[in-house]
């Protein structure tokens, strides 16, 4: 599977779905309506008065940015919240001109906005979870996308035509951009999911797919362990053994023979992957904290976990840093010392 920013891929998928009719028409009408209130101080003041009269939260309308799908979601959500105060202002002849009363959304538009917000709401949560700075997110990417597709985006009889069309388009875009219809058992996302105790059961796979995924992770852990292990010559003799009397060596051999556990039983007992998959230890603070506590129990798998969980699923955190640094370092502050820039960036990020 292609390595890409999850948030960027999600954005492309949702933007494609929002361009379908009648959703794009509803969004265009909502932009015109919000733009009217943003430009008219009289309309904004009247809206606040109507909010107090109708006991509605005194929130301002939100103007969306066409390149940010989440802003479109928040615009529609806020409009739905403020529907009746907005309608009251537009229908008041003392506030709104006759030529501007047609800016109010039609009943069909309001229904479309309601359907769109209902479908996109879990996508907002998904994006926020995967954009967090301090939590490992790669392992949660495909499990969340697959569950989103199989549970939230499944078509139901009670869905409106708009909802069905939006769900169908989103599911198609997710399949295309994340290649969910292909064999993804060897994907880096699935490997990370196996090494996340929250998703290791891979409940969204059948038995054959699970076995393939587990085999891939087992091979990765073995290869990393082999790379990390120092090369040793079994025929060489250590300095301590070189001058050791022969009787003492024989005694150690006898003790080792008496204390040894059967080789096959020992190997079976130490099968890390089987033990890990059977482990019922709960995850309280995310996979990183879990592996920090249990690294000694699964040393080989821990190496693979370190390799995978350090990979962010999205470039959002780094983009935030660059954006904040751009606001801090500008022409009027070009004399800032590097140390001060680091401190200012760190304080803004925290």
TrEMBL record:
Keyword Nucleus set for record: yes
Chief site of localization: nucleus
Keyword terms: Metal-binding, Nucleus, Zinc, Zinc-finger
InterPro entries listed in its UniProt record: HATC_C_dom, RNaseH-like_sf, ZnF_BED_domain_contain
Segments for region (Disordered): 216-251
Biased composition (Polar residues): 216-226
Compartments (UniProt record): Nucleus
Protein name: Zinc finger BED domain-containing 1-like protein
């Amino acid at each position: 599977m292609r390595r890409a920013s999850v948030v960027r891929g999600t954005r492309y998928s949702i933007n494609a779905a929002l361009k379908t009719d009648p959703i794009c028409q509803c969004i265009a009408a909502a932009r015109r309506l919000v733009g009217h209130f943003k430009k008219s101080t009289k309309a904004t003041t009247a809206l606040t008065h109507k909010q107090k009269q109708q006991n509605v939260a005194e929130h301002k309308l939100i103007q969306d940015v066409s390149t940010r799908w989440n802003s479109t979601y928040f615009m529609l959500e806020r409009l739905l919240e403020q529907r009746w105060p907005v309608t009251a202002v537009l229908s008041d002849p003392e506030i709104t001109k006759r030529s501007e009363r047609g800016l109010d959304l039609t009943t069909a538009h309001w229904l479309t906005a309601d359907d769109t917000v209902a479908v996109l709401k879990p996508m907002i949560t998904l994006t926020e979870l995967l954009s967090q700075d301090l939590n490992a997110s790669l392992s949660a990417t495909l499990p969340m996308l697959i569950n989103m597709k199989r549970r939230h985006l499944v078509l139901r009889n009670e869905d409106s035509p708009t909802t069905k069309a939006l769900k169908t388009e989103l599911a198609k875009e997710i399949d295309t951009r994340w290649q969910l219809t292909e064999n993804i058992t060897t994907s880096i996302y699935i490997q990370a999911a196996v090494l996340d105790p929250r998703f290791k059961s891979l409940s969204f796979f059948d038995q054959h797919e699970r076995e393939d995924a587990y085999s891939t992770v087992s091979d990765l852990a073995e290869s990393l362990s082999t790379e990390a292990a120092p090369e040793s010559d079994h025929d060489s003799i250590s300095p301590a053994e070189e001058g050791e009397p022969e009787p003492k060596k024989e005694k150690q051999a006898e003790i080792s023979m008496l204390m040894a556990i059967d080789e096959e039983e020992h190997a079976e007992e130490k099968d890390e992957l089987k033990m890990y998959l059977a482990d019922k230890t709960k995850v309280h603070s995310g996979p990183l904290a879990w592996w920090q506590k249990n690294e000694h129990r699964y040393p080989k798998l821990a190496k693979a976990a370190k390799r995978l969980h350090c990979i962010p699923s999205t470039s959002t955190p780094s983009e935030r840093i660059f954006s904040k640094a751009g606001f801090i370092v500008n022409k009027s502050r070009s004399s800032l010392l590097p140390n001060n820039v680091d401190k200012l960036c760190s304080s803004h990020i925290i």
